[in-house]
Amino acid sequence: xxxxxxxxxxxECGWTTAKWxxxxxxxxxxxxxxxxxAPTGARMPSPLAPSASRAARPITEVDSGPVEHRAxxxxxxxxxxxxxxxxxxxxxxxxxxxxGKSTLLLEVAGxxxxxxxxxxYVSAEESAGQVRLRAERTGALHEELYLAAETDLAAIxxxxxxxxxxxxxxxxxxxxxxxxxxxxxGGPSQVREVAATLTRVAKDRGxxxxxxxxxxxxxxxxxxxxxxxxxxxVLQFEGDRQTALRFVRAHKNRFGPVDEVGCFEMTxxxxxxxxxxxxxxxxxSRAPVSGTCVTVAVEGRRALPVEIQALIVPTQAxxxxxxxxxxxxxxxxxxxxxxxxxxxxxxxxxxxYVSTVGGVRLVEPGADLAIAIAIASATRDxxxxxxLAVFGxxxxxxxxxxxxxxxxxxxxxxxxxxxxxxxxxxxxIASAIARVLPQxx
Length: 441
Prior knowledge:
Elements: E1 6-10, E2 16-17, E3 33-37, E4 69-70, H1 75-81, E5 85-86, E6 90-95, H2 101-114, E7 119-123, H3 128-138, E8 145-148, H4 153-163, E9 167-171, H5 188-205, E10 209-213, H6 226-230, E11 233-238, E12 245-253, E13 261-267, E14 270-273, E15 292-299, E16 302-314, E17 322-325, H7 329-342, E18 350-356, H8 368-380, E19 388-390, E20 393-394, E21 400-401, H9 406-415, E22 420-422, H10 429-436
Helix pairs in contact: 2-3, 7-8, 8-10
């Protein structure tokens, strides 16, 4: 009989290997491979007879039950959730440090408490006094809002039993630990146990739970990948700490859409929702300036006008600079190559700077045409027409391809007063440049 050999398994994704390695070969996580006894043979569990309530039935006879969304009082937050918070759901809100996660959820807790819903806010990072100071500043004080500063999972469960809340907020899941599991708080096993326990409590008692999650330096949610599978909703809180604008996006939502985005603005009194962010991403220059072009981007189900600016500076350096902000650098490099080959521009001896207004980041290909027009405008030092809006994807052949939700973009541009719209109907990039920019003599 062959002697059983020891195997090693990744605690993050379950990848196995015959020998220990410091980094998982599947999910690339460090120090997640631990020793596990290799199975000596295939074993099949004994079948159990299902009870009458759990017996399999035709799907047409299964009662799905109503899914009721309870509004939080913050319209932009409810938009991303699909109408509000569902009873018994677990929502994970992640984001970089200092972006405003705690401020947003404290505002949600204050609004819920004002609607006569008892809320338990558990702070595992700050003291109750610190949370009270923030609540005073943001106007979230209410008798039905209970604060607790706990880092032990058993103590948090005791607080839930004592207060019997209608909503639980935990800030954050990576700083809570359980005495039943080995390891420090924030480790994969601890995060998994804390999230699984709170999920069971939420499902058994019908209490919605909001969790704050840390992110790694790569931008991914810290902890095991299983954390995102356990929760019902995964939200990403985005924004540059140097600007006041913030976005909430849904990466997973079992009770609503995942293509919505909520806009917020950080103020001295807390966080305020921005219901109509149409003018946030446009410059306020009255005189026409070369190197600027407006596109209509689609964020979720809303169309937003975004101004793209370009600057072309001649240089004697053998390697001209390509500096971008708010757009994809590799896509800008591709557009520069298309403009040189198909558009007749000469950019090999110039530094190219491309940026968006307002700190917004555009990742969709629909902004290609606006980037190209802005670069061409800066190269010729000729401003585009004042009420012009463009959108379209540019291929390597120089043709302008249609983008999704083109009619919505056109409708929003017309609503905001843009009388001239250039899109894929123009044909190619050379025709688009000739149409919107006058020829220099």
